[in-house]
Each structure stands twice: as C-alpha cells, then as structure tokens.
Amino acid sequence: MDSADGVPDPLDPEAAKELPEANEIIEGLWVGSADAGTEATVGPNSRQIAYVLNVGGCVTPVIFAALARAIAEEGYPEDADEDDQELSSGGRSRGHTYTHNGVETLALPMDDYGRTPLTEDLLSRLLGFIEHGLQARKNVLVHCRLGVNRSVTVACAFLVRRRGFSVEEALQLLGAKRPGARPNEAYCAQLYAMERGEVAEPSAESEEDWDVAAMQSPA
Known about the structure:
Elements: H1 13-16, E1 22-26, E2 29-32, H2 34-42, E3 49-54, H3 61-73, E4 96-100, E5 103-107, H4 120-135, E6 139-143, H5 150-163, H6 167-177, H7 185-195, H8 204-214
Parallel strand pairs: 2-6, 3-5, 3-6
Antiparallel strand pairs: 1-2, 4-5
C-alpha cells in the first residue's frame, strides 16, 4: 500500500525479512541488510562490494575482529583520531574504518527510531564515504539490520545532496528498487527539513542517547 505522497509505506520487520539481502539503487550504490554486509566482508562477495557503510550498529564479523584486535593490543592504531578511538565492550565503533578481505567498512551507528540528528558533520562523513567509493568506480553497500529504515535514510540523503534528487523522487526510487524500504516518520521529517536547508544542530546529549540506543535497535 502506498502513502499519500505516492511512496510505498514501510514494511513491518517480519515482511522486511523477505526482502533480498541487498538491492542496487543507482549504479554502484547498494542498500541492504546486515547479512549483505557479512556476505561482502567474510563471504563470497557476490556483488563485488568494495566499501561498506554500517549505520545499524550491527556487530559484523569485521567489527568484532577489530574489537578483538584492539583489546589484544590494549590500544588503538597510532594513526587513529581521538574521535575514532571509541571501540567499546559492546562492540560499537563510531566513525572507525576497518579493512577485511579488501573491503573497507565504516561503522557509524544510527538510532532506528529517528533520534539521530542528521547534522552537517554526520552527513558529511556518511555521504563523503559513499562518494569516495563511487568516484573510485567501486560498489558501495549501505546497510543497517534489515535494510528498510536507517540505510534507506542515508541513501536518500545521498541522492538528494549529491545527485540532485528531491526527497520525494529519492524515496520513490528507493521504494521501487527495494520495495517497502522507507525511512520512518522521524527520519522522513529530517530529510524534508534537510531539503529545505534546515539541518539539525549537534547535541551532545542527544548523541549520547542515540549512540546507546543504536546498539539496541530492532531494525
């Protein structure tokens, strides 16, 4: 069933599980689930993914391995920025990049309920990573847990900011390529605000809240 704006309504979590692991939205840009991220990094990588953007707070094998190395070494890489040195006992990494089997992964977890402020800083990091991969003519995967909300939000923001789409056009394309995939109401509101030039202001308090919540989110 479609919403009033002609964009498909989001799927419920059970129906979302029936979706393919990932779908190509535009050439080189894939949106999918955590399983697609695992397939790309430790599986056969059938989609030839070179860059993975994990916005679901999912503890993929790559992140788990990086955490294990960090604990074993009792520290972090010497070239890591202070903001990147945030591996926790829960396996979370905010803004840290890992390379495994030739696939580069950036983990920037977002809250599944739309409470992550889409600030200029966050958008720059998310969209810049995607653009870097596409400019290198490589395949880029953006994934959350199920590939229906957070990853779709990021892909929509990319299409609007970097490819000249309107939010409605981007959502329609995403819904056509990955049926039922659509940001929740809170993220949709932020995307439309972004389109109007009203980007969220950073908030240390809200960042702490969503950072923890992201690791507990269902989708």
